[in-house]
Structures are given as C-alpha cells and as structure tokens.
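Table S2 (text version). Query chain:
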Amino acid sequence: MTALSKRKSPVSVSKIIVYLVLIVWSLTTIYPFIWVIMNSFKKNAYIQQSSFTLPVGKRFTMQNFQTAFERIDIGSAYLNSLLISIAVTILVIILAGLSAFALARYQFRGKKILESLIVASMMFPVFATIIPVFRMEYRWGIVNNDNNLISLLSVILPQVAGNLSFAIIVLRGYIQGLPIELEESAFLEGCNVVQIFTKIILPVAKPSFATVSIFTFLWSYNDLFTQMFFLDRPGTRTITLLLSQITSQAGTNYGFMNASVILVVIPVLIIYILLQKNIIKGMTIGAVKG
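Corresponding structure-token output:
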C-alpha cells in the first residue's frame, strides 16, 4: 500500500515550475540556432520579407551554401582552425597533466607559492597581456612569418598559456581525489613515475582529461581576439576570422551570412554531441569527490 501511494503521489508545484523554467530557457537557447538554419536555406528576398517562415517551396534554395564555398576559402580556414585547436589541446593536456600530477602527489619547496601563482594567473584577462606577448613573438619572427605553420605557432603559444591555469586546477583537484594506493601498488610492481602517470593516472582520470580537452578545444576554436592580432596573412586565416570578414563584407546578404554561420558551427556541434557524456561525467565526478 505504501509503495502504491508513493507511485501515485502527485508532482509537486515546485517541480512543475522548475521544468517550465527549463523548457522556456531551452527554447530561448535553441530557437535562434533553428532560425539561422531556416534562413540559410532561403533566398535573401524572402528573408527580408519574413524571416520566420519555413524554407519550403519557392523559398527553398541551396544557393547560399554554394556561394559560401565559391566566395570564401572555407577548406583552408577549417584546416587552420583544426591545426591550431588540436595542437593547443594536446600541449595543454600534456603540460597541465604532468603539472597537476606533480602538484597533487609531490611535496617540494615553493609549492604553495606556485599554486597561488597558478590561481592568480587566471585573474589576468588576455587583453592585459596581448601587447607584450605580440612584441615578444614579433621579435622571435613568428608573427606573419612567410611559413604559414610558423605563423599559426604565434597563436598556439598564447592559447596554450591562457588555458594552462584552468586545466591544471581542474586536473589537480581530480587527481587529489584518486586513491593513492593505486600508485603505491604500481610503484611496488616496478613502475616508474612516467609509467604510473600513463598507465594509472591517465586511464582513471580519463573523464577529467576529456572535459579539459573539450573546453580547451572549443575555447581555442572560438578565440577570435587572439587570432585577429597574430594572423594577418590570407593563407593563415581561421574559420572565426573568415566569419568576421564575411559579416563586414556581405552587407545585407543575410542568406549567405546564415549559411556561413552554419558551416562554422557544425564542427563544434559534432564535437559536443560525440563527447557530451564525457563533459557531464567529468564535471559531476569532480563535484562529488572528497
């Protein structure tokens, strides 16, 4: 009787309100993207007449996407964005993972000061350091270098530095919550520090590493500010730089602009859809540790 009454218990008013708020919030978040998709398949004249109608019948067209591929070098821009974001993610994971492991498991002189400096570095926005970083890299000769790969390096280095503090803090907190007995057992079996990190820490802390990787990749991919400073040569332009130029050049060609936005956002959506479980798992496990 008790189990039956629990099953038939009415939904509380507070739960209904929470669900209503979440539904409204999700609609306000999703609808703008749906609006962009609809207008990317419509002729510009129909967008100006009514941008909320569905792209059916004579309104439907693929010309906007065809124009986007003809007028802009989107393939090269995709390649540059992926090269930068993947390189930044790999370097951040390696450097932050090793640093977090050392901070979580080793005691050494100046450790507290180093931890404080890592946290303090997150308070300085990229705007505050961009000029000295630009001057330093310009003296090195990697800004607007004739070699496109070297020019991309001028963006990779500041982005790696900008993501390291966040990554170290997240990974250190997760590694501290892992049972140290696993590492002690591996050490007794003859594993060295590198083997302990690669065979014990990396597999066990995979959700946290995945979370840091995804956030680092997306931040690097969408970082227009740094790319505007360091990438000025046509062959080095990224997808976000290309979108910025389209916005200023396309004028009132809204169909072309919407199609370009869709082409820019597609890789981000694919990455998030494929790895969303790792994002949620990494954040929730880190929240309940300890």
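Notes on Table S2: The two ends are 39 Å apart (CA to CA). Confidence is low (pLDDT under 50) at residues 286-290.
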